[in-house]
From TrEMBL:
Keywords, in A-Z order: DNA-binding, Nucleus, Repeat, Transcription, Transcription regulation
Subcellular location: Nucleus
Keyword Transcription recorded: yes
Protein name: WRKY domain-containing protein
Phylogenetic lineage: Eukaryota, Viridiplantae, Streptophyta, Embryophyta, Tracheophyta
InterPro entries assigned to the protein according to its UniProt record, in alphabetical order: WRKY_dom (IPR003657), WRKY_dom_sf (IPR036576), WRKY_plant (IPR044810)
DNA sequence: AGCCTTTGACCAGCG
DNA sequence: TCGCTGGTCAAAGGC
């Protein structure tokens, strides 16, 4: 990709490694120089991404079929649009990598990115990103890829494809121009727009449509793709080639249907196009975040003093300023796919209807000690097939291991679905989500489903998240039939009458795990059996 | 030479 | 209809 970087320094500030300084204004250069100096002065991470083109679609179906013993549908994509939206300059690639969306979520991991120099256990991360583990790939991989290829200082990072910039436009509300790119592959209609913030950070990359071709081999890719790279480019061309080479004629699956497909959505598509509105949303995000910690469930519209107070609190909590606050990543999934199952453990602490969306939003907090990451899971107001998940903050811990040994299903024990489920395999175990509790009836059932451990659930598995509610198709949990109906959390208190506070930490019940596990298996089997063949 | 970026102009949608 | 805005085109130039 042109001018994109495979490597970038991660510091909470984007660093422009491009060589186009000479073409930039003095102000820009000054700022960028400052940033670069800042980088030098900090203990930053330098992340290399070893790309794998798990995005190569055809192999997907085949792999799934091979593992599952059944075929998965290939769904033609007429069009799709998604974007990565980083509202905070602090949303560094590392942040994204470590976010539940991009690190642990198997749905997003089809395209492997290796953190070759990440100080933490990148081996473990590799496992999460191993495309061979993920049975399905689709737009999710794009999300991952694009996410990890956020460019530095204005150039979108190398995502494995070749792009030609065909336009640049100064759009209203942006200090920096928006850049337009087209995929250079013949007959490929994929385009992307790259926007930058006033600070010059890339804030948004919007992709339109999906590639109808595999990634070009490394040696065919435009040299420009690395032109903006600082150093340490590490692209696993072999693997990429290997995965991509057999999928020339594959139709890319739709994010609406395909497991693993996911859209990182821009706020415009969510009705957040207005900057002020987004600001409110962002404010509210913090509010929700803080509400959890402060035991206060406020309204969306905070008074100015309250806002300042909350913002100050947020700053304290996240170590960020308003311009550099906790990273926020908005992800859009389809109803069949939810990134609640992202490997982390979440506790639902509230639910409320927020401005701009009649669908309730549910709030979750990472249950890990000391971790302040929150997320909230809502159905798009304009697209009921989509679920929007916003992550706020950065996990301070690794993805938790399996909740208990009982949650591990032997790879040889699942009959028809053996190995066919896109199961994530840690330590050679196939992980199945385990509910925390079923002791609280419907509420708990819902919560438990939200709290699954590193799930690898295909869209046809049967349930979906629905704006703080859960749709379950024929799933039975411990005698609790939840058939094609939605159920909500109970309210235990909310000053505004909007936020529903949930009970305390759920409990783990072994029996429930077993039963639910069985139910899921049954459910999965049933649903997948009805899948059309390719 | 080929491919890219840059940039002003043009076009279309919308209020 | 007009102006605004976003998206695209295409010539020119750079690498």
């Amino acid at each position: 990709m042109t001018g994109f970087s495979d490597t970038f320094a991660v510091m909470g500030e984007w660093v422009d490694c491009s060589t186009n300084h000479k073409k930039r204004s003095k102000a820009e250069l000054d700022r960028e120089t400052s940033l670069e100096e800042d980088v030098k002065n900090k203990d930053f991470l330098q992340t290399n991404f070893q790309e794998r083109s798990s995005y190569s679609g055809g192999g997907l179906s085949e792999r799934v079929a091979a593992r599952a013993g059944f075929k998965v549908p290939s769904i033609n994509t007429e069009s799709n649009l998604w974007s990565l939206n980083i509202s905070s300059p602090g949303a560094t690639p590392a942040t994204l990598l470590e976010s539940p969306v991009f690190l642990s979520n198997p749905l997003l991991s089809p395209t492997t990115g290796k953190l070759s120099s990440l100080p933490s256990d990148h081996k473990a991360k590799d496992e999460f990103f191993d495309p061979t583990i993920i049975g399905v790939e689709s737009d999710a991989s794009q999300v991952y890829e694009q996410t990890h290829n956020i460019g530095l200082g204005g150039a979108p990072a190398d995502d494995g494809y070749n792009w030609r910039k065909y336009g640049q436009k100064l759009v209203k509300g942006s200090e920096y121009p928006r850049s337009y790119y087209k995929c250079t592959h013949p007959n490929c209609e994929v385009k992307k727009k790259v926007e930058r913030s006033r600070e010059g950070h890339i804030t948004e990359i919007i992709y339109a449509k999906t590639h109808n071709h595999p990634k070009p081999p490394l040696n065919r890719r435009s040299g420009i793709g690395s032109s903006g790279t600082c150093n340490d480019i590490q692209i696993d061309g072999t693997e990429q080639q290997g995965l991509a080479g057999t999928n020339e004629n594959i139709e890319w699956t739709s994010p609406v249907r395909n497991y693993g497909s996911m859209q990182v959505q821009n706020r415009t598509q969510f009705g957040y196009g207005d900057a002020a509105f987004f600001k409110d949303e962002d404010e509210e995000d913090r509010t929700s975040h803080m509400s959890d910690s402060m035991g206060y469930y406020g309204e969306a519209d905070e008074s100015e003093p309250k806002r300042r107070k909350l913002e100050a609190y947020a700053t304290e909590m996240s170590g960020s300023t308003r311009a550099n606050r906790a990273p926020k990543v908005v992800v859009k999934t389809t109803s069949d796919i939810d990134i609640l199952e992202d490997g982390y453990r979440w506790r639902k602490y509230g639910q409320k209807v927020v401005k701009g969306n009649p669908n309730p939003r549910s709030y979750y907090k990472c249950t890990a000690t000391g971790c302040i990451v929150t997320k909230h899971v809502e159905r798009a107001s304009d697209d009921l097939t989509s679920v929007l998940t916003t992550y706020i903050g950065k996990h301070t811990h690794e993805v938790p291991s399996a909740r208990s040994s009982s949650s591990h299903m032997s790879s040889g024990s699942s009959g028809t679905i053996q190995g066919g489920l896109p199961t994530q395999t840690h330590n050679n175990h196939v992980h199945y989500p385990v509910p925390h509790s079923i002791s609280e009836g419907l509420v708990t059932a819902s919560s438990s489903l939200f709290d699954f451990q590193t799930p690898m659930r295909p869209p046809w598995a049967g349930f979906s998240v629905y704006g703080g509610e859960t749709e379950l198709l024929g799933l039975s949990i411990s005698g609790l039939a939840i058939g094609q109906e939605r159920f909500s959390m109970p309210a235990t208190g909310d000053p505004a009458g909007l936020m529903l506070q949930l009970p305390a930490e759920p409990k783990l019940e072994q029996v429930a795990q077993q039963e639910l596990r069985f139910s899921r298996r049954s459910l999965i089997y049933r649903d997948t059996s009805s899948l059309p063949e390719i």
